[in-house]
Amino acid sequence: MPARPEGELILALETSCDETAAAVVAGGRSVLSSVVASQVDAHKIYGGVVPEIASRMHIEAVSGVVEEALNQAGITASQIDAVAVTHAPGLVGALLVGVNFAKGYACALGKPLVPVHHLRGHVAANYLARVSGHGHAYPDLEPPFLCLIVSGGHTHIVEVLDYTEFRVLGRTRDDAAGEALDKTARLLGLPYPGGPHLDRLGRGGDPKAFTFPRPKVAGHPYDFSFSGLKTAAVNQLQKCSVQLPPVMAATLHSAFSIDFAASFQYAVADYLCQNTLRAARDYGYRKLALAGGVCANSALRSEACARCAAQGIELYLPELQFCGDNAAMIAAQGYYEARAGHFAGYDLNASPSLGIE
Hints:
With 357 residues, this protein is α/β, with parallel strands linked by helices.
């Protein structure tokens, strides 16, 4: 039998959307393996995730990714201490694949089953990092701290009071930041998934070439509204199309499109940083973490680094491989959920809209 790595071993599964992932993490911090089977090519022709296709592909892939995760970690299934699984939130059919597989696997091995909230997992991706936003080594991140969770479906400012205790200070009232980026990418004729393509297109562009609003939510200074930003992008493109036909796909590599992409991303990053740093100031936090798929965006990372450095706030960023959906982050959070005694029975069900708190 292979030698046992140091620390409790958590095998985790993540199937909340269109990534089938499995990972093994020791002690909540050390990644022994992280395997992700992407479905991007299958959904690309539809311009977005098709839930029924996602569920079927999870069923086809889940057993293989778990086996590969164990092989990469150099351990056997009997050596794991617990099985963690994303049970909320997400696409209900996709979640059910992971939840049911995890229940069967834990039962067969006689191991505890640990339910993990997807957004808590994104926060825990920061526990796997080793380099700060300012580029220097730092001690392991520990609560309390403030975290901006920003993805295609979620935008939250959250107090991480302890490893399993969270309080939401602000959230989007309509669209998520990632959705706004993807929509604008589609307007520019960029392929799915739009966010990363928009990021690449905008590099080197003028972030001040176009002006976009920063909507305020009356009485809620930390909340966001990205619907207006999307509408402003549509209106500006329609206005410019009269003078610069055609604006869309044919001008992808024009100075206009590059500047437009850079300006829109700057507006999103500026908006996110404004509200988050306001919350950090008001609540006295000197440690800030970013989490979620959109925190891979270069404009957001750059803006957050600059502003935190200017204000003396220590910024924590996940490694790029742990920004998007993955199971390593679920295993990391699963370790702390298990330490808190948060286990589930075999009646565990998927919860597609459960809050992080």
